[in-house]
Amino acid sequence: MTAPTIGRLRVDGATLHHEVRGQGPLLLLIPGGTGGTASLTGIADDLAAEYTVATYDPRGISRSTLDDPDAEQHVAEHADDALRLLDLLSPGEPARVFGSSSGAIAALHLLLTRPERLERVVAHEPPVVEVLPDAAEHRALVARVEETFRTRGLMPAMAVFAAGLSKDEDPDTGASKSEVELPPQAAARAEQTLAGLPYFIGRIAPAFMSYTPDLHRLETLSDRLVLAGGRESIGELPYRPAAFLAERLGTELQHFPGGHVGLTTHPTEFGEALRKAFRG
């Protein structure tokens, strides 16, 4: 395993930490949640045998610092960050992009606004709940999470959020019945994950889960888009928008190993599924 080349990129309102591995056509990986670049290491090292793999910490996460720590977050701004990295690493050449969760929402917006810069996008469980028929229910969930965070603090807010996302949470323990033991390298990142949760719950989740993609425009770009969901998260809230969009666009929903965080729990198998998705 070769150590990545590490860089810093100034963008509007933030400085992005990014890492580059391998050689070949550019593949940009956009993480979701609070894991940042570290959450993608398992698949990035494997994919670097075939691609120049770029990963980064989204603004406000881990080593990507905000000029204003209290700044509101917007999907368009995060998508523009991804574009700036493409311009830096693959100027003028269409690239492949993978996004997971909130990162998949940024990838969708990038496809909608700058399709000429993208050859193919794989979006894994983008929680664009506004496209669902019961969107009002999920809007209310986000409001409950925000109110709980404001009045009772982080962990109660996380419990409300987890209950709203999962189809099989154990009401006695608050744990998902589909949880699996994380690999050691993933478990070691727990401190980083916890450190980023207030920012994620307070800024990212409300902004990203209120985002509505332009479905008519997305239909015209569906030949460049692969929608994916976890085999173990069928029926859960983050899975449902991917399934809805695939049906709406008339494309096949790809099923990847694991659940919503399959890239962390099943990195080898997930990387192979991603490789196949980009090969078409």
Account of the protein in words:
- There is one protein chain.
- α3 links the parallel β6 and β7.
- The protein has 280 residues and is an alpha/beta fold.
- The chain has a single domain (5-132, 211-279), classed as Rossmann fold.
- Strands 1, 2, 3, 4, 5, 6, 7, 8 and 9 form a nine-stranded mixed β-sheet that branches.
- It contains eleven helices and nine strands.
- Helix content is 44%, strand content 18%.
Quick summary:
By secondary structure, the chain is an alpha/beta fold. The chain has helices spanning 41-47, 75-89, 102-113, 135-152, 154-165, 184-187, 190-209, 215-220, 239-249, 262-265, 267-279; strands at residues 5-11, 14-21, 26-30, 52-56, 65-66, 95-100, 118-124, 225-230, 254-256. It has a single domain (5-132, 211-279), classed as Alpha/Beta hydrolase fold, catalytic domain (Rossmann fold).
Task: Fill in the keyword field for this structure.
alpha/beta, AB_hydrolase, 9-stranded mixed beta sheet, Rossmann fold, 280 residues, hydrolase, triacylglycerol lipase activity
